[in-house]
């Protein structure tokens, strides 16, 4: 759609000399106010005088509206992509976040799981105590906790009938 200009709006404003007021309002797309000016002689001429100062902003507003409606969508979507890896100060921090923290001492449950892995997934209470270096009572509580967490199942050895804890490792 064609843009409107201020010169044409000022020429239409001059029609008020002949009693036709509000032409500039029709031109800038303000039909309601244009009709009001037409039937009230530009609000007794006061509105027409005020419009001399308001015509440039009315033309700019109409042109902005027309630019938005030409694209079919007046809303403009903007996106900003920020790559934090390109900021030198953050590169060291990102490296420390990405690397897992190595602990020198494993938790008792980790020791138990490693022992189970080394013994083919089956442990007795004595074997677990030997590999984890914990007291048998602590190992027993740890095995019960592993059973509750679903990490181990309690079974009996087919040959000896001894209690074995089977880990799916």
From TrEMBL:
Annotated localization: Membrane
Output a single Gene Ontology CC term carried by this record. membrane
> Which InterPro entries does the annotation name?
TM2 (IPR007829), TM2D1-3-like (IPR050932)
Which keywords, in A-to-Z order, does the entry hold?
Answer: Membrane, Transmembrane, Transmembrane helix
What residues form the membrane-spanning segments? 7-27, 33-55
What's the protein's topology in the membrane?
A: Multi-pass membrane protein
* UniProt keyword annotation of Membrane present: yes
List residues of the TM2 domain.
5-52
State the Pfam families in the record: TM2
Write down what this protein is called: TM2 domain-containing protein
